[in-house]
Amino acid sequence: MIEEALTLPCGHTVANRICKAAMTEGLADAHDRATAAHQRLYSTWARGGAAILLSGNLMIDRRYLERSGNVVLEDDSGLAQLRAWAQTVREGGSQLWAQISHPGRQCPRLANLTPLAPSEVQLDMLGNFGKPHAATEADIQDIIGRFSQTAALVKAAGLDGVQVHSAHGYLLSQFLSPRTNRRQDRWGGSLANRARLLLEVVSAVRARVGPAYPISVKLNSSDFVKGGFTLDESIQVVQWLNDAGIDLLEVSGGTYEQLEFFKPQPASEIRDSTREREAMFLEYAKSIKAVARMPVMVTGGFRTRAGMEAALTGGHTDMIGLARPFCLDPDFPVRMFSGQLDRLPVPEDRLVLGRGFWGPNSPVSALRALNNQAQAGWYYHQIERLGAGLPPAPGLSPLRALVAHFVNDFGRALRRKLA
User: Fold this and answer.
1) Measured CA angle at 117 (ends 227, 260), to 5 deg
2) Alpha-carbon distances of 354 from 68, 116, 137, 213, 358, rounded to whole Å
3) Pairwise CA distance, residues 403 & 410, whole Å
4) pLDDT digit string (tens) for 152-180?
5) How many CA atoms lie within 13 A of 413 on its CB side?
6) How confident is the model over 135-142, as a mean pLDDT?
7) Confidence of residue 362 (pLDDT cuts 50, 70, 90)
8) What is the longest distance spanned by two Cα atoms in the chain?
C-alpha cells in the first residue's frame, strides 16, 4: 500500500502514502519571506519521492513567531517567493502543502516579549518565553480572519494544500487544553467551548479556499502532560471535525513541555507491541481512526518499511508522516519504493548531552529542556546544510548543535529587527 495513490474527500489525489511532515526551517529572510534556501531544500526532498511535502510553521501573524526565520504570510508581499518555492517542489515531482500556524505562548522572547495566548499561563522553559496576555474577543476574531487569509494566499501562490496546526502546544492546541485555557467565556471551560476556535478556523479556511482544495488538520492524540488535552477529548474533537469538511487528519502528540518525539527510548524499554508497530502515536491513532470519517496520517516513530506497511494494511492509518529521517537521508522514499532500503537512520540514541542525572530523563526540567534543544538544534543544522546545497553532517555533536542553534537564532532575530 505504501506506493498506492490516495484520493482525498475533496477529490484531490496524492501519489503515494509518504508525507514529509512539518519541520521548522528557519530559512526566511529578514522580511519573513521564503528564500532560495527553501527552494534548494525542498527540491532535494521532492526528488526523494514523497507524495506531500508539508512546510514548517508558516506564520499567520508577523508579530508572533515560532522562531526567527519563519516564513510569514499575512499579505501578498511574499507571494512571488512562495510561488517559486511551490514551483520547485512541483518540478521535483511532489506536492507542497503549507502548515499555517500561530505559536500562542510558545513565541520566544527573541520574537515577542508578551505573546498572545488563551490565558495568562506562562511557558517556563529556560526563561525563553515571556508571560502571555490573554486574547480578547477582538483578538480571537482577528486570529480566525488571519488563518483564513493566509490559507487563501497559500492557494493563490499555487501550493497544493493547507494544514491548520492544532498540535504540539501551539495556539489552537493551547485553546483545546484545560492546562493552558482557563477562560470562563464561550472560548473556554467545556470541551465544546475549548474546541470552538479550531472549528471556526477550519470553517473560515474552507470558506476561503473552496470545496475542492485540500485542508488538513494536525491534532494531538494527547498532550501527555497532567491536566492537558486527553485522548478521549481528541476522539470527541475528531467527531466534530468529521462534519467540518477536512481531507486529512494528522495525528501526533506532545507539547514543548513534553516532547514525546524527542524522548529517548532504549530498545530494552520498548514494549513488544510498540516495537511491532513502531510509531509512537499509533496506539492512540487506532482509537481516533475508529471514529474518523476522513483519511488519517500518523506521524512520529516510523523507521522500517515493514512497520509502515503493517500500519497501512492493518487499517490503523492511511498515510505515513515522517520528518527527521528526511534530514539525514533525503531520498529514502524512492529507494524504499524500489526495494533498496528497508530501515531508516535513527541517530536519536546518541543525540544527548549526558546520561543519568544530566541526561534527557533528568528530574531537573531545565536539563531536559537543554537536551530537547540540543536535538532540535542538531536537526536544524541538517536542514540548513540541505538548504545551502550541502550534504547532511551526521557526525555533528549535540553540544555544538546546541550552541549553534542559540547563536543562529539570535542572529536571525537581530537581522529581522534591523531590517
Assistant:
1) 45
2) 28, 35, 46, 47, 5
3) 11
4) 999 999 999 999 999 999 999 999 999 99
5) 18
6) 98
7) low
8) 56
pLDDT band at 224 (very low <50, low <70, confident <90, very high): confident
2, 16 Cβ separation under 8 angstroms: yes
- Main-chain dihedrals φ then ψ at residue 199, nearest 5 degrees: -65, -35
341 closest CA partner among 92, 47, 48, 14: 48
Residue 219 φ then ψ, to 5°: -135, 140
List Cα–Cα distances, 327 to 116, 165, 182, 300, in angstroms: 32, 21, 38, 14
Tens digit of pLDDT for each residue in 38-49? 999 999 999 999
Q: pTM for the whole thing? A: 0.92
Query: Residue 77, Cβ neighbours under 10 Å: how many?
Result: 13
Average pLDDT, the chain: 90
CA distance 275 to 384: 32
Query: In angstroms, rounded to a whole number, what is the distance separating the alpha carbons of residues 116 and 104?
Result: 5
DSSP state of 208: H
- Three cell numbers written together for 249: 487528519
Q: Give the SS3 label for residue 162.
A: strand
Signed CA dihedral, 325, 330, 336, 341: sign only: negative
Distance CA 297, CA 244 (A): 17
Tracing cell 530537547 back to the chain, one arrives at: 372
Query: CATH classification of 6-346 is 3.40.50.620, yes or no?
Result: no
At 320, is the secondary structure helix, strand, or coil?
A: strand
> What does the domain layout of the chain look like in residue ranges?
6-346
Share of the chain above pLDDT 70, in %: 90
Candidate ranges 88-97, 220-229, 367-376; pick with highest mean pLDDT: 88-97
Distance CA 324, CA 268 (A): 23
Helix 196-209, helix 231-241: angle, nearest 10: 30
Instruction: Copy the grid coordinates of residue 32.
Output: 519573513
- The cell 506562562 sits on which residue? 122
Residue type, 392: P
Is the pLDDT assigned to residue 357 strictly greater than 80? no
